[in-house]
Amino acid sequence: MTERPEPRPGIMDIAAYVGGESSIPGVDRIIKLSSNEGPFGPSPLASKAHETEAQNLHRYPDGGAVKLRAAIGERYGLDPEKIVCGAGSDELISLLCKAYAGPGDEVLYSEHGFLMYPISAKTVGATPVTAPEVDKTANVDNLLAAVTDKTRILFLANPNNPTGTYLPATEVKRLRDNLRDDVLLVIDAAYAEYVTVDDYSAGIELVDAGENTVMTRTFSKIYALGGVRLGWCYAPANVIDVLNRIRGPFNVGAAAMAAGIAAIQDKDFEDMSRAHNTKWREWTAIELGKLGLDVTPSIGNFLLVCFNADPDRDAAAADAFLKTKGIVVRRMGGYGFPNCLRITIGLEEEMRSVVDALAQFMGKNASGAA
Ligand SMILES: *Cc1c(COP(=O)(O)O)cnc(C)c1O
Q1: Phi and psi of 170, rounded to 5°?
Q2: Domains and CATH numbers, the chain
Q3: What is the 8-class DSSP label of residue 326?
Q4: Which end of the chain has fewer CB atoms surrounding its CB within 10 Å, N or C?
Q5: Candidates 34, 217, 218, 302: which one to mutate for ligand 1, based on the most atoms within 8 Å of Cβ?
Q6: CA of 56 to the centre of ligand 1 (A)
Q7: Strand order in the sheet with 106-110
Q8: Spatial separation of the C-alpha atoms in residues 322 and 70, rounded to whole Å
Q9: How confident is the model at residue 366 (pLDDT cuts 50, 70, 90)?
Q10: Per-residue buried b or exposed e for 175-206, using 16+ beta carbons within 10 Å of the residue's own CB
């Protein structure tokens, strides 16, 4: 006889998502490079819009997110009818799992993919399945080889977090072309706005080409609005219809929408953020490479940095040393990289500090960091 309510099978197998640390005991001012947040804070226009909306907090928000969808459509040249907004793209990931997968189904993603995919899959009773990566990069042939009769959804983070690697548009198209038509391909393009390489696509053309591909986006990264929880997806009409049936009627708050509209219209802030990120990501990668660290080439706003196995010089020791300097980065054990750290691209002085600290840690002077 059971004595208390028990969750459905699989729920207790979920390891809850652990976000980046944001404090160090005993340290007042920290350098937080643990959550891929925008280093400048939000656009001042977004903060102002959020504040203005504070007068109206007694009113329910527009459940249809009409103005926000129009602003997104305007910015990216998309039909607002094919957009659904969510409380972060995490909510959209979880809604897609709820709608398209269940017990006995498989949800496929690549080996070092974003951890919300297995969490959302298990939440609905589905089985997460991974396909091996090659050079810390998703591999189309391996993903296709892992597809079974039970596969219902394939999540591809492009670029991927935490590796920063990506599949060029031709490879994503090859993936879609060779995937069964009834498998939903979800392209998670959380970092798309940072990308400057020519052979990348966030996947809009694949969404437009059929009824089985979705692109998810977020306001948490380049728009620096992680605190308000705002994301969106671009999807064919059949998927939009499904999402609108199962989402909460007021799933996005009014202040979040106001901030999002102002942020997406502040093109200067976005361009400044992208240029800063590209410059300091490349500088940091070069400097850390000079220290003998293994830095994975990244097109996002973070770097995966791997250490050697010597216990005095490994990722755990580096993380502990950085903390003594007030610097918080992300341990990567949960992503299958126990000897790597993920470092978000912060302000110039923050990147100089992290390079200086790691130079000390590696027992060398930072070259060119003066
Ligand atoms: C940060 C991130 C998201 C965004 O999550 P939000 O819920 O929108 O804050 C989605 N996917 C990946 C791969 C990410 O790194």
Answers
A1: -65, -35
A2: 11-41+268-361 (3.90.1150.10), 44-266 (3.40.640.10)
A3: T
A4: N
A5: 218
A6: 28
A7: 83-86, 231-234, 213-218, 184-188, 151-157, 106-110, 127-131
A8: 44
A9: low
A10: bbeebeeebbbbbbbbbbbbbeeeebbbbbeb
Pocket test of ligand 1: the residue of 72, 112, 161, 163 to mutate, having most ligand atoms within 8 Å of its CB, is 161
Separation of 86 CA from ligand 1 center, angstroms? Answer: 12
Q: Contact at 8 Å (CB) between 107 and 128? A: yes
Three-class secondary structure of residue 141 per DSSP: helix
Q: pLDDT per residue over 99-155, tens digit each? A: 999 999 999 999 999 999 999 999 999 999 999 999 999 999 999 999 999 999 999
- Which pLDDT tens digit goes with each residue over 151-183? 999 999 999 999 999 999 999 999 999 999 999
Which residue's alpha carbon is at the smallest distance from atom 14 of ligand 1? 190
- The residues near 318 (Cβ < 8 Å, ≥ 6 apart) are 307, 341, 358, 361
In angstroms, the CA 91 to CA 100 distance is 14
Task: Estimate the share of the chain in helix, then strand, then coil, as percent rounded to the nearest 5.
Answer: 40, 15, 45
Give the contacts of 2 (CB within 8 A, at least 6 positions apart): none
Structure tokens at 359: 């130079």
* 3: helix, strand or coil: coil
Omega prior to 159 cis, within 30 of 0: yes
Q: CA-CA distances (angstroms) from residue 13 to 16, 115, 298, 331?
A: 9, 14, 32, 21
Task: Scan for tokens 């341990």, then name that residue.
Answer: 331
- Residues 264, 71: contact at Cβ < 8 Å? yes
Sign of the CA dihedral running 207, 42, 37, 248: negative
- The SS3 assignment for 274 reads helix
CB atoms within 10 A of CB 358: 26
Q: How far is CA 342 from CA 17, 22, 137, 161, 326, in A?
A: 16, 14, 16, 9, 16
- Looking at the DSSP bridge assignments, the partners of residue 84 are 233
Nearest to 231 by CA among 284, 188, 286, 283: 188
Identify the three-state secondary structure at position 228. Answer: helix
